[in-house]
Amino acid sequence: MNLRKLSNRQINKLLDKLDVEWSTCLNELIEAGRGYETSNEIQKKMDPLSLKYKLLVSKYSNIRFEMERRWGINPPYRLPIKRRK
Predict the structure, then answer these.
(1) What's the sign of the alpha-carbon dihedral 21, 4, 66, 70?
(2) Run of H or E including 58
(3) Backbone phi, psi, residue 44, to 5°
(4) Sign of CA dihedral 42, 47, 53, 56
(5) How far apart are CA 53 and CA 7, in angstroms?
(6) Which of 8, 50, 57, 62 is a Cys-bridge partner for 79, taking CB atoms 3.0 to 4.6 Å apart?
(7) Which helix (H) or strand (E) holds 18?
(8) Which residues of the chain have pLDDT under 50?
């Protein structure tokens, strides 16, 4: 997916979806007794849950880079959108 072609509204919707997936992944880690693991520990593992975690981190990073490209360093949590009148 080319993030450069997405509107701010579409980027925000992607972030909303990722937030749900991220929360689910963290809950799965906790339920698996792995809530104590640091991100660095998870990144070194190759089990399905760790792979899911790494994929979500990668997606967030890519979106964050695009947000920084548009907004500059330290963009807001969600990109501003033009409100319809």
Answers:
(1) negative
(2) helix 48-71
(3) -85, -15
(4) positive
(5) 26
(6) 8
(7) helix 8-31
(8) none
